[in-house]
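Sample pair:
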Amino acid sequence: MSDMQTRDWSHDLAWSGPPPGGGSAAAAGAALALGILIMLSRTVAANIDQLEACRKQALAVATADEAVLRRILQAFSNGDVLEQAEVLRAVQPMLQLLEIAAQALEAANKLKPQLAAHTQCDLEVAIWQLAAALRGGAAIIALNFSLLSDAGEKAALQQQVAVALGRGEEALQELQQKSE
């Protein structure tokens, strides 16, 4: 990786200072996986517009999640209590990440049968990065459930997570079955 910005970002992640955190890393991983899917799609002359849009969204999620984490850390360091609306806004980037990962895994399912055998290992790397983004995003949202006191908001959020996570996990299972 010769991109200095990527190396600086990973250094920031490893440093003991403020964010980025796990959500940003999961989104950046999804963006890298989408880059692989775009590369592979070009080998079979597939339409890459949707994948490119998802890749850009994943990068935007990484940035948005970093801003959210900064705000949460600031609130906690000041002894503030986060309002319910603020907690719900805070999980929005991870909800977007779940949707992006699910869409990308569904796209990988369509792409897999078209790929030459020598490109399957690249696809596997993308699949597992997307699985990590999907599950990592869900774990971060689950952590934020504890900050919600309104049962209705909590139930609605759990439903959104279940739908996106279910789509992603279903696509992941299909991909694993195709590999056997």
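The longest helix spans residues 49-77.
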